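Re: your question from the hallway

Yes, I did run it. Sequences:
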Amino acid sequence: MKIIILKNALVQAIQNVHKAVSSKSTIPVLSGIKMAADESGLRFTATDLEIGIETLVPTLIDDEEIVQVKEAGAIVLSARFFGEIVRKLPGKTVEIEVKQNYLTIIRSGKTEYNLHGLDHEEFPRLPQVAGNQVFSVQSDILKDMIRQTSLAVSSEEIRPVLTGVLFTLKNGNLKFVATDSHRLATRESIVEAPPEMEFTNVIVPGKSLNELGRLLADNDVLVDVVVAENQVLVKMGHTQFYTRLIDGQYPDISRIIPTTFKTGLTVNTKELQGAVERASLVAKESDNNVVRFNIKHDRLEITSASPDAGKMSEPIDEIQVNGDELLIAFNSKFFMDALRVIDSPDLLIEFTGSMSPFLIKLPDNPTYLHLILPVRIY
Amino acid sequence: MTRYGLTDKRQILLVDMNSFYASVEQAQNPGWRGKPVVICGDPERRSGIVLAASREAKAFGIKTVDPVWEVRQKCPQAILVRPRMETYVEVSLRIMEIAKRFTPQVEVFSIDELFLDVTGTEKLWGGPWEVARKFRELVREETGVVCSVGISYNKLAAKVCCDTMAKKAPEGIHEWKAEDIEREMHPLPVRELFGVGSRMEKHFHSRGLVTIGDLANYPLHLLKKRFGVMGEVFHLSANGIDYSPVTPNTFAKDMKGCGHMMTLPRDYESAQEVEVVILELAEEVGRRLRRMQKRGRTINIMCGYKGFMGGFSRQFTMSEATNLTRDLYEAARKLFHQHWNGSPVRSIGVSIDNLVDDTVQQLDLFRDWERERRLAYTLDNLQDRFGKTAVLRATSLTAAGQALQRAGKIGGHYK
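Structure:
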């Protein structure tokens, strides 16, 4: 293999795939990035067998030559060294040449590195995903869906399915659900899909989605999502992202979300966020960061207390209350997590008693829903 | 003291019951007085060791923790007595009540040791010596037990004073004032300092620190460098400085953790059998937590192999604090399976720490905590009212089960 590539393009490509490099694998080749050159350009691949990212740097972009392939071939280079080296290279272009025994020469400006590479044949091939189940969604919408749901996944391996986000698709409506059994987040969106396309129980690891979220651009370009038996492939321009799915049956959540409520609240998001955050400062972490809402007909009082630290209270008057008065306690961390991913100026909170889950909704966006289970105080 | 220009003007008493279990037995069985009495486990079971020996038995060289067969060799005429823990606890409580007549500042340090802070009671009792004398008299009159009293200006000095001086004093009472530390405590072997065990003793000896005085004069920064915070504590202790207050016992509040351990009646070879005992231990730990209104997050399992051939002790921090037997059992069982190497199991223990108050409960979408909690507390209630054997798990009735056996014991010893 022998190529010349623009340094910026090389840095960008490495950055794209770097997230998939295995940091603590027992298989040495997985700590590397594979490069393969052919007439289409230079292809970068990294995987930790959980996720895989592949990105192509094409020979030409808008008639500008990005990569010049002088000799096709492939090599695997240690991500740690290669990544660091490339960023610090002095020239505008980088020449990479693979000699015998995987010896790789990297030249840029007056600098020359000789790196020991690894056999690309040992690098696992990314799965061939059969493309029968494909839908398309705007990059920024998918990114938002991930952001608003993945925070609710469980970090405990006791119930593996809960460490993932549930994807379902029906009638062109894509729905994400995540729960750690104390809170639940859902977000829906209409996507471009064949009318007959439908799937349930596709569980994507939350960690994978966070990496995907970082790769997704904040624009309305469509990305293709291929859903296969045990993996999902996302195609974004020249970059492809694979992830393994989680085995198992996601619990039925259809009956969990209440459809009616006894106390409804409309409140300014920022004001509430500030008050809950201030209240949480004296809440005790070991006691579930408990903060209380005391909802009266014309106001909401936010309080918290801990035996060691002291107590706090703050009323919010500018609110609209429908229904019964209520006193409820909950984990303020869950509440703040939920508010952090909300962009709406106001929000609706619907309660059905102090021992039942409550819902956080957006007045202008019915596709988002966040459910939090309260804390019982003895 | 003077070295630091610090003054501690408290008057602290440490009371230590001499050969406590044996004294109780001798007090209650007049025929045993003046004879070597040894309280020990069942010689038929291999957990049979000496728990306490009377003064007469100690003269034969019998020490606590000696195996029973050794006692028979050293002193064939020794009277071997099975422990009656309930009685000892009762006597201990009675002694505490006596102490409380003098001051409310009474801290139970162990079943046979009490701290009393009598600062400011001079007008009432005429000073610490008077308290010590009257207290000893009352205890002997009301329970028949003899005790020693160390008097000093803090807990540490009172304890060391009692252990090293009061026990040998004719009156059974000795006092150390601040100025006595250098003369009387410093020449003592370092091992006598409270908190110094055989391991620390070795560490100190290897540095040439043989007496408490050596330790007191050893450069502080070297101790800190080697032993961290503990180094500083040893330094202060050796200099007779200790500011810890006498805290009247608030058992549940300050509990850091709790646990249960037992030596099995025979070595258990199958995991299934061990699991039965793990479940029973988890149940006991859960009960203790519930009684204290606590929940714990970090579970520890300790397992000893056949013939003392090693074993392991491992812990795991659960995602949420719990006091439900089911969670404790699951966690302990998982730990056991992760670390068990298949050797026959001689002893097993389950303990928990990282405790929080059982006052809040995060509700769960897929689990009815409320129901499980009510069930657990109901079972506790049944056992409290009708005895530990009123409700048992079916597995406890299998050959491996120990719950029935243990129901008749306190701390693994006969009631």
